[in-house]
Design a protein that fits this description.
Number of strands: 7
Number of domains: 1
Helix content: 25-40%
Strand content: 15-25%
CATH superfamily: Glutaredoxin
């Protein structure tokens, strides 16, 4: 017989599913620099690419991150955040980050809280006990726009796919996306609240 506690656990797990339209949990984790970070604080009001990574030992993860290192200059100028979460230790996360030349935040979760909460344990690898790799594109508020399951490498997004996703997310959230709109020009001559950074 299923207990009330077990039912609640199932419901809570279902609520945390990685599906478009849901809100990703606002985890607080330790970064590669040993500081604590909350995801919502890192994201702010910008789109965010979130990589749930197997970690430093995985050649597929290394290749994906190499592509993102090359893509990072475009991410950096486009008011977009990027974060990697892995089950690595701080030492291992720094080792991977340094070997890649990555410039973004790596968060560590050796206790596997994210893996357990989201029920994404990669049970086919009991030796490393990683998460099933996922890449998520998040709208502000940690709202999931797109989910890529990267258990197989070709399930992971290319920079072109991320570009398309981020274009659509930015179009949704940037009221000044199209400066040809006469209402935007009028706003520029007024309080400018529809122009970045939107608050005066």
């Amino acid at each position: 017989m299923t207990t009330d506690t077990e039912r609640r656990t199932v419901v809570e797990a279902q609520q945390r599913r990685l599906v478009a339209g849901e809100t990703f949990p606002d985890y607080e984790l330790t970064g590669h620099d040993r500081r604590r970070y909350r995801l919502s604080d890192v994201q702010g009001t910008d789109p965010m690419i979130l990589i749930l990574s197997r970690g430093h030992y995985c050649p597929k993860d290394f290749q994906q991150h190499r592509l993102l290192v090359d893509f990072y200059p475009q991410i950096a100028v486009s008011y977009t955040k990027i974060v990697t979460i892995s089950t690595d230790t701080i030492y291992e996360a720094n080792e991977m980050r340094a070997s890649l030349g990555a410039q973004w935040l790596f968060l560590t979760d050796p206790s596997r809280k994210v893996q357990k909460d989201l029920d994404i344990k990669e049970y086919t690898d009991p030796t490393h006990d990683p998460m099933i790799p996922h890449t998520l594109v998040l709208e502000p508020g940690l709202r999931i726009y797109r989910v890529y399951n990267g258990y197989w490498f070709w399930g992971r997004p290319s920079p072109d796919e991320l570009w398309r996703d981020l274009r659509e997310v930015s179009r949704r959230i940037r009221p000044d996306w199209d400066l040809s709109d006469p209402a935007l020009r009028a706003n520029w001559n007024g309080d400018k609240t529809k122009h970045y950074p939107y608050v005066r």
